[in-house]
Write a structure and sequence with these properties.
This protein has 281 residues and is an alpha+beta fold. The protein has helices at residues 2-11, 16-31, 36-62, 173-185, 221-227, 262-279, and strands at residues 12-14, 66-71, 75-77, 82-90, 96-102, 115-119, 124-131, 137-141, 144-149, 155-161, 165-170, 204-209, 231-235, 256-257, 260-261. The protein folds into three domains: 2-62; 66-170, Immunoglobulin-like, CATH 2.60.40; 173-279, no CATH class. The chain contains six helices and 15 strands. Helix 2 (16-31) packs antiparallel against helix 3 and helix 4 (173-185) crosses helix 6. The longest helix has 27 residues, at 36-62.
Amino acid sequence: MWKSIKNLYRNIFFTRRFYLIWISLIFIIFLGYWIPVLFIIGKYLWLSFAVLSIFDIFYLFSTGNIKAERILPVIMSNGDDNTVLIKIQNKYNLPVQLSIIDELPVQFQKRDFNLNLSLKSGETKQTSYSVLPVKRGIYVFHFLNIFVSSPLKLGLKRWRLSQPKQVKVYPSFIQMRQYELLAFANKSRNGLKKIRRLGHTLEFEQIKTYQSGDDYRTINWKATAKHQKLMVNQYQDEKSQNIYSLLDMGRHMALPFKGMTLLDYAINSSLALTNIALKKK
């Protein structure tokens, strides 16, 4: 018995509509001291309002429930938008309005998080939001708070779902993959201009027809005489070279820029560059 009362006290809330009606009824009853008919009307309205409120609370606490699951990525990318999914099912007999407040990790410093959703009886929906971590480390997502209101919209019941979970934030692997695709496509960042990578080393690749802009020093005279048109040797960049990424970890690298430290920007850049170097050997 005591546990049920304690659970009711902790999880019952009231909407703005409830307080507006309550204040309006008090005002009507107050005017009833000068206009007696308003006092009688206000008294009956107050009784009706109390009955509806009790019925609304009883419905929310005894006729159904809400099932919800928060789906987090295995790891998050630092400095990028990461998507968090929320899957919700309504097990009430009537449509309900939901207000979703997720207890985000303290690193985000976001205190105005709120998602509104409406569900029909038995309906399942999936919604999502994105978060932008700006610091590497472990982020803890706490409980998922869902406030349910009936069509009357007088009372609210809070459901605390989805157990706390830790997510590790790594350097930007999303940007690493983006630049990897650009590097292998031989395109610039806007994807419109082809980039010609001309090598001037001894790493021979092929003999091809001379085109405007080719180095005339690479003309292959034997192939030119054979094909009766200018032919040039084409060389490629030397591979299997040693590449070192040196990061300055001095005090000034802790300075922030758009939420992230300069060191985190350097780590993300080094990761993208190193990945491409390894993939291209």
